[in-house]
Write a structure and sequence with these properties.
Elements lengths: L1 H15 L4 E11 L1 E5 L8 E5 L3 E7 L9 E2 L4 E2 L9 E7 L3 E6 L11 E7 L9
Parallel strand pairs: 1-4, 3-9
Antiparallel strand pairs: 1-2, 4-7, 5-6, 8-9
Organism: Candidatus Manganitrophus noduliformans
Keywords: Signal
Protein name: Blue (type 1) copper domain-containing protein
Length: about 130
């Protein structure tokens, strides 16, 4: 009985301090225009997260040109990915609001490499996919 209670308490304590994480994979593309491509094939997808959620963005180079992902209003900037298949991961805690994300390398944003991240209040619901 005591062992079962200790195991149960351990599981509760392990889960108590962990924040929910939301992960997005964005692949770079240069076919006519520059873009970040979401897992569902959407160009420059709007990313929806909840305030306080840990956000993980995986940026994968899909075209061989150098790219970076930046969200200046959240003080978030990825490492540069230079070669096809190279990945970098950035993590941050979501703050309420809507913020552009883009590639800050010369000309990339102007050529279309820009999307939006929307941080919703915890009680708000995400749009259906």
């Amino acid at each position: 009985m005591k062992v079962a209670a200790l195991v149960l308490i351990s599981f509760i304590l392990i889960g108590a301090g962990t924040a929910h994480a939301k992960t997005y994979l964005l692949k770079t593309e240069m076919s006519g225009e520059f873009a970040f491509i979401g897992e569902d094939g959407t160009k420059n997808p709007t990313l929806e997260v909840y305030e306080g959620e840990v956000v993980e963005l995986i940026i994968e180079n899909g075209d061989g040109a150098p790219h970076v992902l930046s969200i200046p209003e959240l003080a978030v900037k990825s490492a540069r990915v230079d070669t096809v298949g190279e990945r970098t991961i950035i993590k941050f805690v979501a703050k309420k609001g809507a913020f552009p994300y883009f590639c800050p390398l010369p000309g990339h944003r102007r050529l279309g490499m820009e999307g939006k991240i929307i941080c919703l209040r915890k009680e708000a619901k995400r749009r259906p996919a």
